[in-house]
Description:
Blueprint: E1 16-18, E2 21-27, H1 32-43, H2 55-72, E3 77-80, E4 86-89, E5 95-100, E6 104-110, E7 117-121, H3 130-133, H4 136-144, H5 148-163, H6 170-173, E8 174-179, E9 186-193, E10 195-206, E11 209-214
Antiparallel strand pairs: 1-2, 2-6, 3-4, 5-6, 7-11, 8-9, 9-10, 10-11
Helix pairs in contact: 1-2
Amino acid sequence: MKQPVGKTKMPIPENIIIKDGIVGIFKMAESLEELEKRYIGLFHEVPPVDDFQHDRRKKEWLSVRLLIAELIGTDFSISYSGDGSPQLNHPDYHFISISHSAMYAAVYLHKNKKVGLDIESLNRKFSMIEKKYLSENELEQVNEHPVLRAVFWGAKEAVFKWAGREGVDFRKQIRIENVELDKSNNICAVFNHQSEQTINLQYRIFDGHVLVFTL
Length: 215
């Protein structure tokens, strides 16, 4: 495996089309006031964000909904299950995964199967928690290719969201079997809960971030 060269300088990906699914990314560069104005223009209602204490949370809420509207229109709503997982209500798209970093919001919508997605800043200090989420074999790989700390965390977070279960042990229950750094950006992971399930993922590295999503 070779460490990718220059990929952190890649532009923001266009919408990523997957069979019966779509991944979108939104750069949260606008002010809260600008996002609220855009929301009102699209949805013709005042956004219900006053209950959020922090402006960052308000911007995340607005950015996600503006991004979804850009992808599939405004005929949707989002509810939440008992464990906090988002549920998409839409005529065609029925599954959703949401992620944020300080700079970006990302969503993954799918028509007929559950999905998982994560976006992370490469500047996050993954090395401080690596022993909590990486196996011994995975630790050897990230020592050789430091960017994998973020890629592996993103992959395991995406699998966790896909699984929709609480209390998952990232180190013991989610195993990275294979990752292609310089070819297709594919990842193969195994989720172990009662039985083993293989999950295929892809990742993109851009603008100092990594985006990982299930296939």
